[in-house]
Amino acid sequence: MNTLTNHVNTLAERVLAQDSDRFLVGIAGAPASGTSTLAAELARRLNAQGRKSVVVPMDGFHLDNAVLDARGLRPRKGAPETFDAGGFLRLVTALKTGQEVFAPLFDRSRDLAIAGAIAVPAAARVVIVEGNYLMFDEEPWRALGALWDLSARVDVPLPELRARLIQRWLSLNYSSAVATRRAEGNDIPNARRVMDKALACDIVLNGQPALRS
Questions:
Q1: Which of 56, 141, 163, 187 is the 20 to 30 A CA-CA neighbour of 125?
Q2: 177 within a domain of the structure (yes/no)
């Protein structure tokens, strides 16, 4: 049984043991730890077992590039200050109500967020939120910790994250030198920040093979 299957089994068992009308799962992890892959597979498993589930990625709250340019933050895109943290906090609070909610989705190919691209119907009993800063000990992010019914962290060693982050840029046809520079100049400092200021989670999952984020 591979690592991803083990992780899905661990989380699905905890979720299926609950019988609430709206259960929020927060899956945190450093860049390239594989939170989106895990969230997608968990939702697939839960839906197959009759527990309607929707995934909401934190990445939909990236600030637009024009805003980042105006603030001199474009080179740091992906750092905590390059997200609409307040808007994300309001969304998660709304998700707790159990009512229908619409969330933005980040289009990586166009490098922009699309408003209202994800519908979370009232019938969704489980909402799986994934992203880097869901259990992060800085304001205003730390307020999220109290909102999750179940929190999990995907823990991947930094050398493995470094290799994955470089490969991410290589897959976009950047040269090895540019891919390494981009990863070491921004992505890896963000990963270190996530690790250094991590809040305690209900579950820590060690290692994640396949990934999308």
A1: 141
A2: no
Range of the structural domain that residue 15 is part of: 3-157+200-206
Phi, psi of 197 (to 5 degrees): -120, 35
| Amino acid letter, residue 49 | Q
What's the pTM? 0.92
Query: CA nearest 91: which of 17, 24, 9?
Result: 24
User: At 70, which helix (H) or strand (E)?
Assistant: helix 65-70
3-state secondary structure of 172: coil
Q: Is 129 helix (H, G, I), strand (E, B) or coil?
A: strand
pLDDT by residue (tens digit) across 7-54?
999 999 999 999 899 999 999 999 999 999 999 999 999 999 999 999
What residue type is assigned to position 75 of the chain?
P
**CATH assignment of the domain containing 97:** 3.40.50.300
Structure tokens at 41: 């597979």
Radius of gyration of the chain measured on its C-alpha atoms: 17
The DSSP secondary-structure symbol of 133 reads T
Task: Specify which residues 55 forms β-bridges with.
Answer: 128
CA 36 to CA 212: how far, in whole Å?
6
Task: Taking the CA atoms of 86, 190, 33 and 200 in sequence, report the sign of the dihedral they define.
Answer: negative
Q: 112-120 and 101-107 as β-strands: parallel, antiparallel, unpaired? A: antiparallel
Q: How far is CA 101 from CA 28, 123, 133, 157, in A?
A: 21, 11, 21, 35
